[in-house]
Amino acid sequence: MLVELGGVRLLTDPVLRPGFAHIRRHAAPPAPDVAEHVDAVLISHLHLDHLDVRSLRRLDGSVRLLVPPGAGAFLRGKGFPHVEELAPGQSQDVGGVVVVATPAVHDGRRWPFWGPLGIPIGFLLRGARSVYFAGDTDLFEGMDGLEPDLDLALLPVWGWGPRLGPGHLTPERAARAAQLLRPRMAVPIHWGTFYPRGRGMGDRLTSPPREFAGHVAELAPEVIVRVLEPGGSLELTS
Fold first, then answer.
1. How far apart, in whole angstroms, are the C-alpha atoms of residue 234 and residue 238?
2. Which range of residues forms the domain containing residue 119?
3. pTM for the model
4. Which end of the chain is more exposed for a tag (fewer CB within 10 A), N or C?
């Protein structure tokens, strides 16, 4: 996701190339200007589909990387000099937008499993609007009341495979997250973009956001759901 608040451009967990490992892009490639004039990149955890070193190399070398604890040494060792670790509850100012790390429930180890270990996080962005980017997480204690008067929640509703492992939100559990967070608007993310080569996905490339919207209508009807196809955009107005 590219989030623009008050002229500040924040790019979350970017994978800008056609694929990684055995995973291939299903959606159209991101527009070239997505990676331009970025003020900071927000990395939620170290998994290959969230921390893609080759995609980060496409960005301006001076861009700030705000990353979870455990990712700093790994990225500096890859040649990225402007890396700042944020533990849950810690924050940094990016051009007047306050970026706060939040808890997340997810596996933090980078593949292969002897790779570096980080603490998964999400991000609250506080500027003219307030935005929560969950990264990858399951429901966690403290999600209820995480950010009073939240404008937008970006909530993962699936993944890149036909099944979900632990530490993820299904469409129903993502709707439960919306019920707890009580944002004005929710956008389902982390679906329909990548798939494993040689594996059937059934309807998992298309149905999760619609299932999420249906569950939100039941659990939190006051929350507006906007489903964006990969590459789509949304303007937050009054």
1. 13
2. 2-225
3. 0.96
4. C
